[in-house]
Write a structure and sequence with these properties.
The structure holds 2 protein chains of 2 kinds. Chain A is mainly alpha-helical. Chain A has helices spanning 3-23, 27-52, 56-86. Chain A has a single domain (3-97), classed as Helix Hairpins (Orthogonal Bundle). In chain A, helix 1 packs antiparallel against helix 2 and helix 2 packs antiparallel against helix 3. Chain A starts with a helix and ends in a 13-residue tail after the last helix. Chain B has a domain at 268-490. Classes of the chains: A mainly alpha, B mainly alpha.
Chain lengths: 99, 490
């Protein structure tokens, strides 16, 4: 696979994630979208790491995966908080404050 | 051994956080943890001060940790600032959480770990450590925001903060991924060396994404949408922490990125670099936040918008980095210090005005406070005057140095816009004082009663001491800021 096609795939993943973040209403789906965006960035790191040689890109990707997992764990806890209260986890439920 | 000495501020806070976590898990009775957390953080600040006095240059081994951690005076300044801010937030939590029946030990552990993350962020010189510090800081802040689990507003605020925060983090690492692709480096200095010679589209897109990601974290307009809800929904000590430590950590990141990775003359020129971008952010942030802040009915939400506006004033100083990195950098550092003590004090005074599960929220809650509780009103007024930038308080010199840096950099229009904005800002700060001193509470209206708490009083005294000291004799602090900014540039 060439570098350009990897980058194109990563950009497409990032855009799909961005679309999901804006369009989906379930918090779990939004978390998945954010995960897609983060993984698009990891893909760019790994692709450039392979292309440039050396371990730097891969090292960053491993760190980034671990940190994103921790982040999603907190996100799921927040989704649980909303679910316990409303029996559902759509984002509209969290819109009591005025804009 | 010398490495341990150079790292000692980070080590103190890290070990303190672990010990406090153990104490929280095994101690049969709660209480005293606030004192423990505040002690750890103030000791951390003192140790950072000690290393500063001894001279980090005399510890050459510290450089062996570069580029992962840059242990320089810039980092030490932020260690002191962040420990001070975190310590004040811990003291405020000691009064607030007990008074409102949500005292659980995790909060203090979260404060310590989040402060540690911010300190790592402020010292990081590589995308890996930078991201590690950023996430450690942010995860603690998300959890603290949702701390009042029974409150729908807390859940809502935390959710918005989390979603936009992790979105910003994704943008930031995508930006660093592109910078890595363009330069072959993940460390800021390496990126800077390559960015100075060749400018590719990849590099420009990466730099833009990084700046956007950081703008979310400093809550610059138009990336501020999460801030008011998160600040209002969070328990007030968590709000204090976010307004003070998280913002300072994000500014440290911004300064490092702009000075080291994008510090070359081609990037700092007005025609082809980041200054117009940062200047636009500064103007939008000041103006929009000030106009909305004046229309708020909740004092807490007003203070949230005020903290956005203050990020705008600090960005004026950041823009001025294009001409004189040392002076302008020093003005931003001094501004962050004066903003930290004034904001912690203002939120602290708001905390002091509520008790027994009833918080002071609206302007009406504060009416007549000047007659009923003169000490609380006096403390609140001092911090509001400082936020408004009226002498002889820290906020006056904070704004003075930032606007002076803009004028010295030839950015007259930016300084004038900043000045106009601080006049607009004075309106809503003074409005609180009008309610406190010139209004009487309506008959039968619920009136918040101030609490009695040694922790909150101690936090207010420390903040007031700093606000007055910086307002009367700023010379020493500005010298320190200049030394910190000098090495930050080099």
């Amino acid at each position: 696979m060439s570098l350009a096609s990897c980058l194109l795939l990563a950009a497409a993943l990032f855009c799909v994630g961005l679309y999901g973040l804006l369009a989906r209403r379930q918090i779990v789906a939004i978390l998945l979208s954010i995960e897609l965006m983060a993984n698009a960035a990891n893909l760019v790191f790994v692709a450039f790491g392979h292309y440039r040689g050396g371990a730097l890109g891969q090292v960053f990707a491993v760190f980034s995966i671990a940190l994103t997992v921790a982040e999603v764990a907190v996100g799921l806890a927040l989704a649980m908080l909303l679910y316990r209260r409303h029996g559902d986890s759509r984002v509209e439920l969290a819109s009591e404050m005025k804009r | 051994m010398n490495i341990a000495l150079a790292l000692s501020p980070l080590l103190v806070v890290a070990l303190g956080a672990l010990l406090l976590m153990l104490a929280e898990a095994f101690s049969p009775r709660q209480g005293g943890l606030a004192l423990g957390a505040a002690t750890v953080l103030f000791v951390g600040a003192a140790v950072a001060g000690g290393v500063w006095m001894y001279g980090i240059e005399r510890l050459p081994e510290a450089a062996s940790l570069a580029p992962w951690l840059l242990l320089d005076r810039f980092g030490l300044f932020f260690d002191m600032l962040l420990c001070l801010g975190g310590g004040l937030a811990a003291l405020l939590a000691g009064g607030y959480l007990v008074e409102h029946g949500i005292e659980r030990g995790e909060f203090y552990v979260l404060i310590l770990f989040a402060t540690l993350g911010a300190m790592i962020l402020a010292s990081s010189g590589d995308a890996v450590t930078l991201f590690l510090g950023l996430e450690t800081m942010s995860l603690g802040a998300y959890a603290m925001t949702a701390f009042r689990r029974a409150s729908p507003r807390a859940a809502e605020g935390a959710l918005k903060y989390f979603l936009l925060g992790s979105f910003a983090a994704a943008i930031l690492i995508y930006g660093f991924a592109l910078l890595y692709g363009a330069t072959g480096h993940t460390d800021l200095a390496g990126i800077g060396a390559t960015a100075a010679t060749a400018r590719t589209p990849l590099l420009v897109v990466g730099a833009v994404l990084v700046i956007v990601g950081v703008a979310f974290k400093v809550s610059a307009v138009p990336f501020h949408a999460w801030t008011p809800d998160a600040y209002e929904g969070a328990p007030t000590p968590a709000t204090t922490f976010m307004a003070v430590a998280v913002k300072a950590g994000a500014f440290a990141l911004l300064l490092r990125v702009l000075l080291i990775a994008l510090g070359d003359a081609s990037w700092t020129s007005w025609a082809a670099g980041w200054p117009p971008v940062v200047a636009t952010l500064a103007v939008l942030t000041m103006t929009v936040a000030n106009l909305i802040a004046g229309r708020q009915e909740s004092v807490k939400r007003m203070l949230a918008y005020s903290s956005i506006a203050h990020a705008g004033y600090a960005l004026v100083g950041v823009t001025a980095l294009m001409r004189d990195p040392t002076q302008a950098g020093a003005s931003v550092l001094f501004y962050l210090l004066s903003y930290t003590v004034s904001t912690a004090g203002a939120f602290g005074a708001l905390i002091l005005c509520g008790s027994h599960g009833r918080e002071a929220v609206s302007y009406e809650d504060l009416s007549g406070l000047g007659r009923r509780h003169p000490a609380a009103a006096l403390a609140f007024s001092l911090f509001l005057l400082s936020l408004a930038g009226i002498p002889p308080t820290a906020g006056f010199f904070g704004k003075w140095f930032v606007f002076k840096a803009a004028i010295d950099g030839g950015l007259y229009w930016l300084a004038i816009l900043g000045f106009v904005n601080s006049v607009i800002g004075a309106y809503y700060y003074l409005r609180v004082m009008v309610y406190m001193y010139m209004r009487e509470p309506a008959a039968g209206a619920p009136v918040a009663l101030p609490m009695r708490s040694g922790y909150v009083t101690a936090a207010l005294l420390v903040s007031a001491l700093f606000v007055l000291a910086l307002g009367l004799v700023p010379t020493r602090a500005i010298e320190v800021a200049v030394r910190a900014a000098t090495l930050g540039a080099g």
